[in-house]
Amino acid sequence: MARTPMWRxxxxxxxxxxxxxxxxELRFHLDAKVEDLIAQGWNPxxxxxxxxxxxGDLRQVIATGIRIGKERERRMxxxxxxxxxxxxxxxxxxxxxxxxxxxxxxxxxxxxGIGANTAVFSIVNSVLLRPLSYAHEARLVALEEIIPQLTYxxxxxxxxxxxxxxxxxxxxxxxxxxxxxxxxxxxxxxGEPERVMGSRVTTNLFGVLGVKAQAGRTFxxxxxxxxxxxIGDSLWRRRFGASPSVVGSxxxxxxxxxxxxxxxxxxxxxxxxxxVEIYVPWVPRDTNWAWAxxxxxxxxxxxxxxxxxxxxxAELNVIQEQIATRFESGVGHxxxxxxxxxxxxxxxxxxxxxxxxxxxxxxxxLLIACLNLGNLMFIRSLARTREVAVRRALGASAxxxxxxxxxxxxxxxxxxxxxxxxxxxxxxxxxHAWQPPGLARVNEVSxxxxxxxxxxxxxxxxxxxxxxMPALHHWRQDPQKGLRATxxxxxxxxxxxxxxxxxxxxxxxxxxxxxxxxGLLVHSSLRLAGVERGYDATSVFTAGASLPNxxxxxxxxxxxxxxxxxxxxxxQPVVIAAGVxxxxxxxxxxxxxxxxxxxxxxxIAERPILSYRAVSPGYFQAMGIPLVSxxxxxxxxxxxxxxxxxxxxxxRTWPGQDPLGKRFRRxxxxxxxxxxxxIVGDVRTQGLETEPSPIVYVPLWPxxxxxxxxxxxxxxxxxxxxxxLREAVAKVDTEVPLxxxxxxxxxxxxxxxxxxxxxxxxxxFAVAALGMAALGIYGVLAxxxxxxxxxxxxxxALGASAxxxxxxVLRQGMRPVLWGLIVGVAAAFGAGTLLSSLLFEVSAxxxxxxxxxxxxxxITALAACWIPAHRAxxxxxxxxxxxx
Amino acid sequence: xxxxxxxxxxxxxxxxxxxxxxxxxxxxxxITSLIRRQTDDALLVEEGTLYPALWRLxxxxxxxxxxxxxxxxxxxKFYRLTPQGRQHLHRETEIWDAYAAAVAKVLHATRPPLPxxx
Lengths: 884, 118
Hints:
A: about 900 residues, 25 helices, about 55% helix, B: about 120 residues, alpha+beta, 4 helices
């Protein structure tokens, strides 16, 4: 066989032509056979006919041949195609290894960016998006009551038990509804006495939620008010060592023995009070409950399958109206309405905006990082201009070049995402350990398949984003220019100018916007820290205690107990003051009741409803609450009922008058009236952010609370203080446990923890964003002035001064920054209203913050631009022009 | 003179082609010619079966094809054995030998086999 002739090789370029090949091959065979026949003595025509006859059915053969040939071609094309990808990938890997520094930087940035975003997303997903772990969760709703006349105190009220019974009986749109009442209980027996959060619930609760016990059973209707209990998984593990024999055993709740009927599953959480660990059954009977007041319970309901929420609202509102007319005769006219919220919304609503803000912030950080990376890749790709031009000249399509570009980006971002997932896992673990308070469903946060998918999507998007710049450049580039041998001309530097300016402007704008948000949050926190609390938290220690009903059934016994503990504390020389209070400041509302001033003829419904606190006389000094006028009540006042009002309470009850000496009654008309003997300063009750509520301080008689908090002002250190408290309580009764020993200061910081959590994170992201933007601005400007060395040299040679050159470079750098700032500030301005719920006493358009952020961004950008500008001014024209 | 051509079993054509190529690359016509001559005109391979077999062998990468010029300067497609083809040929030859020997034992037996031992 001779070597393949040249013409045949070139024909390959025209692409395989299977049919022609087949024809050629078979024709050759035919001709060869004819020649043989002729050689054997046949004459040419007959030879040809005989040859064709012997050949048989050509068509069939050709068809088979075409089929086989096409298959082969297809397989070869596939191999070429994938081979092309693999070839590209290997080439890219080599290039990345060469630019190890760039690769390391890119991987680090991507890992951090994608990892942080994935972590925040998995938090958002677990808390906001993932459905609750109850069955039928889409139909579960939380019920709350609204009394329009009382919205000054509370826009929504908890549920009244009598109203609940009415709904359960009458509402057809509800499949079932359950009532819950959470309160702290003492757990004794089998270990240290412990204070746990318990809840009494109607027996149908777990049916409504669709929850099954992991061991034993949940409540049934027959349980009625039997002494049975359900315990939560974490309590089971913590106190009973996850021993299966707990089911059926006896535990003492508030000194009353209960049998454990079952253990709740590990992923179960109480829908209203996440810290509840024990449930006891409850049967609210109609006759026991008042029609008005006493809004102290939570209710959850399941809608019927075909029913939409608005229908339920309509029906329940009708029932509410009927109820309102029922108690009008006794109490006066009050409107009653219902609020129905999907249970998931109810649980997470206050976390929603926090989490979404975080997502936005961290996404912006990634965006800036990708833009910076894009710029780096663009610079890198410029170095390969000639290589790309050669490839294009040799026939690579523009699509192939883009594909290679994108593949590089994808490889980087996937590797970065893989690393980032580890980082995200660590962040989620840290989040669990930290347990930021006030965020719902914290324990459900985990990195799951959705988060993984999110990371994949993010890596593809970032790859697209940061390969866009070099890709566009290569796309628009004329291959001729790239091939030209001269390399750099003296006035180069314009490629991708617009993209770079956009990059600088976008980064400046985004970091400014993020800084503004951070600044507003910081300003809010500062305002909050400086707010007038009404008490003095220095050196104040607190602890909680509650007395079991079995051993302290009467009020006088409880009063004696508290007073004895307080005296025991006051005996200590290191104690400055000690007292008890039914609920500490910042811990929310406690019991509210009517204040019926003597001589007030209005119907009960129109009389003020205020917060009541039962206190011992030493409380005010212990808490540092100032006395404004009159005196504090004293145990010597007994049996007279003397009370102290906060300034606002006095103003609300007797506006414009002097309240000292006036008398009032509580809601219970059978109780004797109280006499006001003093006015004290207002104290914030709900949290530092809410205005102080009006409070009526009543003494420990005639009603003495079963559970109180101690307030201790002492010079001792925390360990000593804790010991003092425990010993004082133990001295009176060793079986009463003390719980929650903490300083008032830590209660304060816990109440602001959620705000500080958000502020710290957003601030961190904003600073990171600003830093990266500064690096990006510096990088872009430094590089572009580097390319313009020749041009600058010419300018200098033609008489421009160093200062003029510097100014020119600065102008070039700062112009896009200014544009970006304008857009960023405008965007923050527009988005301000969305964030106003996060701010405290700070307007979303707070001028000082905006001004400060603009200044900081400008200065940072200026500093970033200064170095290249300065270097440009120092260029020596001779060297620049010689640089060829 | 034409002898009655024997019917070829499909698999044997493949191995005959492979063996034919052992002596060097050949085009399709030369392969049939070689087989005809080597079997003393006993096996006449038809074009309709030869080329599909050749193409399938090419697909399985037991032979590879290349265009070239024949002895009289005509464009022809030459086939050549690949290393895998060579291995395949050796394996198939062994199998064929074993098969043929077994068949021959039965066909050329002069007496029936002894009964099997229990």
